[in-house]
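Researcher: Please predict.
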Amino acid sequence: MSERGLRISGLRVAVEGKEILKGIDLVVEPGRVAALMGPNGSGKSTLAFTMSGHPKYEVLGGSVTLDGEEILGQAPDKRARAGLFLSFQYPAAIPGVSVANFIRSARMAVKPGDLPPKQFRQLVFDKLDTLDMDPAFLGRYVNDGFSGGEKKRLEMLQLAILQPKYAVLDETDSGLDVDALQAVGTSVNALRASDEGKDTGFLIITHYPRILAHVPADVVHIMMDGRIVKTGGPELANEIEREGYDRIREEVAGGVA
């Protein structure tokens, strides 16, 4: 039986000939939340883009397995069908494509033919209710004229509809005001409490610890200069909130971490 989890082992990645990730080891377990924190430029988003299969990111070594299946080298759509969901900092707008058609197409691409139209429609309205979203949202064009909070809510709806095994949320809190951040946190927790989402593993990639006040992490990793330099419990995020990243830098420089 294969070992469950989203497992990143010895991952080294270069962009335009420059090595950015220098041997990342990280595990996201089913039903648990892992946080990856670090200052700007530490390589956090490079990790997310690499897992998505972006062609700009060259894998120099290591592996990424999803419940024992190697996904590096697979096409992005195959990674999604394997159960990987990625939410990015700046979702693209798609004028002319309604939210309803977009999420239907996404579901069909990931889980083709698994639900007849009537059951899919019921699923959509059930998830809108779970996320406390107005059904009028479905008639709008994807991210066209959306506020930052609305873009993130749409990603939470996609997450709820696609029902992945593992979700990577890259800088989900970026640009959100307090109310929007709380709404996103409420959405993630509602999904985790549902029958379909209780076993979903989350990797929350963030610069600031504020989202972790709404979605508590089971484990926190700190990344600097393409390496994970420290791992701890939720208290590590609180430490960053109090003291910033300077003390971690000092620990690394002194060989303490």
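Model: The mean pLDDT is 90.
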